[in-house]
User: Which sequence fits this backbone?
């Protein structure tokens, strides 16, 4: 069941989202060759605690960390690690923040030092794909319009769209209805209504969209070892258009 959020709920989610955006801005400053995703994990734990917030992913279905840290061919759900990042890596940091009962979810891919042209293009196209999906999230449109906007653009740029992970409703819990596919057909799926809060979080791959999960049960990678990037925002659908809750 898709629930519509009250103004108060949206306000609380926006407050969580602003803190999440600030956390990402701090992470952006930390990312450089030699830094470990474990250091980022520790920073996030401390930063959220200092701001009266908690990391919602920690303990979620047995996941042990505040952040997911997905390097290069890892699509999502990578564990923070003590291995230093190298010049040329790309790393996606994903987290869900809980603040005063409000939840917000946002992921961002960062470049470590100078990256290849291909990596940069994958990052640019994935970020653009997110914003194209957001632009399609208008009252009266359907979920398929979001998926179509993302898929048609991404595939036009010769990248593939991951099928195994999706966006989602978010509210009282991290994952609610509806499931938000990043591919699809215009005019199909549930109609978008004012007060729906969803995430849009396309993962694009340089090669095939197929993935495999490591023995750890979480880390999802591309089967061909090629790069994957992801950008995610939590948004609310309003009469005036989509509003991003995880930006500022
Ligand atoms: N933040 C992720 C999402 O976008 C959820 C990660 S699953 C977890 O939906 F177990 F790591 F929390
Ligand atoms: Co999400």
Assistant:
């Amino acid at each position: 069941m898709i629930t519509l959020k009250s103004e108060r709920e949206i306000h609380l989610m926006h407050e969580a989202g602003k803190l999440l955006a600030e956390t990402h801005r701090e992470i952006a400053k930390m990312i450089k060759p030699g830094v470990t995703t474990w250091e980022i994990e520790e920073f996030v734990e401390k930063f959220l605690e200092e701001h009266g917030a908690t990391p919602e992913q920690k303990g979620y279905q047995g996941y042990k960390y505040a952040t997911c840290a997905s390097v290069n061919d890892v699509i999502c759900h990578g564990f923070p690690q003590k291995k230093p990042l190298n010049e040329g890596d790309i790393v996606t940091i994903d987290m869900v923040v809980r603040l005063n009962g409000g939840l917000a979810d946002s992921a961002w891919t960062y470049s470590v030092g100078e990256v290849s042209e291909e990596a940069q293009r994958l990052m640019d196209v994935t970020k653009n794909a997110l914003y194209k999906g957001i632009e399609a999230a208008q009252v009266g449109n359907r979920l398929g319009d979001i998926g179509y906007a993302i898929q048609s653009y991404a595939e036009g740029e010769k990248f593939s769209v991951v099928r195994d992970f999706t966006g989602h409703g978010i509210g009282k819990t991290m994952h609610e209805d509806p499931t938000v596919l990043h591919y699809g057909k215009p005019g199909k799926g549930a109609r978008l209504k004012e007060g729906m809060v969803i995430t849009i979080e396309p993962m694009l791959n340089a090669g095939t969209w197929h993935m495999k999960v490591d023995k750890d049960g979480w880390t999802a990678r591309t089967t061909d070892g090629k790069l994957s990037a992801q950008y995610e925002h939590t948004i609310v659908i309003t009469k005036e258009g989509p509003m991003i809750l995880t930006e500022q």
Summary: Helices lie at 7-30, 37-50, 117-135, 143-156. The pocket of cobalt (II) ion (ligand 2) is lined by residues 105, 168, 199, 201, 232 (CB under 6 Å). Residues 7-244 form a domain with the Creatine Amidinohydrolase fold (CATH 3.90.230.10).
